[in-house]
Amino acid sequence: ISMFQILIYCYSEAIKSSREIEKMCKYDLRILYLLQGQKSPDHSTINRFRQKLEPFVEKILEKNNKFLIDNKLLDASSIYIDGTKIEANANKYTFVWKKAVIKFKDKLIKKVIKYFNLDETIEENSLIKFLENENKKLSKKIESENIVIVHGKGKRKTDTQKKFELIDQYLTKFLEYNKHLEIIGERNSYSKTDHDATFMRMKDDHMLNGQLKPAYNIQFATSGNFILGIYGSHHPSDMYTLPLLINKLYPIYKNKMDKIVCDAGYESEENYVFLDEKKLRAFIKPSNYEISKIRKYKKKQEFRENLIYDKDLDQYKTEEGKIFLRIKDRKKVKKSGYISISKVYKCFDWNLNGTKTKSIWFTEIFEKYRLKSLENITSNEGINERVNRSVQAEGAFSKLKEGLKYSRFKHKGLKNILSEMNLMAIAMNLNTLTYKILNKDFNPTRYISVEEKVA
User: Fold this and answer.
1) Can you give the pLDDT at residue 352?
2) Which one of 78, 167, 276, 418 is at 20 to 30 Å from 62 when CA atoms are compared?
3) In 3-state terms, what secondary structure has residue 428?
4) 296 is in which domain, residue-wise?
């Protein structure tokens, strides 16, 4: 217990290095009080304790939050979600790109097929087995004919040795490429010094050249200035992380959760449908919210809104009598497997501004949910929720990066960095609780910008 108290206290004071914690244990009076005369731990003991703590740290954060809810200090009805990219503990120039690996592998396959004059339709596994068999044959030949394997300057290699070494080189390359693809999985890249890290474009671009760095996309779910849950992702886009984070929180807080408040980066049809199935209200800012205020965009929207729909013929008609016929359905399959369907309509006699045809399309499910979310965020309740998201969700990352000086991970591997983030969350929650106790504020934190109507 003393070790855990020391660890959380040091994290709350922006001290994360095991050697710095060791130094604090020797000289800091507050930690000496926690030790109660026990021998101060060295850096190796601290690191071993952190490793053993990893399977339990998420549960500890959950128990702490349950304590806050039970004591009316936290209300988990509104969940504010935001994400940030934090640089991994990996070198910048250790990238492996999936497309490059696939390209080089295809070139290798063509080279082997051409060299051995094989059938072009041969499968990769069969090709590798063929090379292994050829390698065994040549190995036996070298042994039976007592061929001396030579290397170095002035030595002449036999044709058998040359062929044996070439096949061995091909097999090594196949093994290397397949290992790269196995590590990458569904990602587009990975770092050789931290296999779980993915190369992403960061906000901190000091060279202004769009340099990619190995990083993790970290998602925080906050409420009442407390961190409820954390999710780490390889994907640079926030859109794909929302269902995964909610699935972590839902079994724990499903009786409390009501509103999910996010910025425009989380908007998608899949996310809207997911939240609706969970019976959670979406307060997601539409991605076209800002541009919708521009006159040109408004004019475009007015055109769509003024179209007259004929349900029987499934077609649209303009005020001038131009007809848009439904020509096809456009299917879009997301990475998660979700299928979004858009209805495409075309006018074949448009002849306006020199254009003979004009197409429009409608994604009915998405537009229905977007309209509902827009109503939510523009209501008085929604305005307050957006203010709270800006203060609480973005504020949590501000405390982490600026307050606690955490801008780069110290550990490697997704499992280890999530353990580190959960420890940081416990420390940050402890700081928030301390502030509330000192200010005698024993109610859930919520900022009010405009007055809400009481139902």
Assistant:
1) 67
2) 276
3) helix
4) 291-362
